[in-house]
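We emphasize that the prediction below concerns an isolated chain of 126 residues; any contacts that depend on oligomerization or on bound cofactors are therefore not represented. The input was used exactly as deposited, without trimming of termini.
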Amino acid sequence: MRDKYKEWLKQADYDMDTAQVMFNSGRYFYAVFMCHLSIEKGLKGLFSKVMDETPPKTHNLLYLLDKIGKRPKQELEKFIAKLNTASLATRYPDDLAKIQEAYTAEVTMEMIIKSKDVLQWIKTQL
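Result of the prediction step, given as a token string:
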């Protein structure tokens, strides 16, 4: 169980790379979705390492943070909350045109950059 976190982190990196590919192809809200998935897997890796058990089957990033008992600096934690909220809209969009309008190239690139910062923080906690 101790090394399972490495697989979670490998997948988190892969998903972050996929976020960049989605961004480059203009699929912005999918890029945001992949950011969420990357951070979710990163947090599950951290959970696996810290708790030495299988992480819960949840998409809730804040729940995972609470269970792990570690907190990033406030700016990153606020971003994690924002990304957590974005997950539902990007996973099950009600209106394609509306979500495409909300996640512009500028907004999405900022989310990718901050997601990379969160993933880096997660790696420092291992």
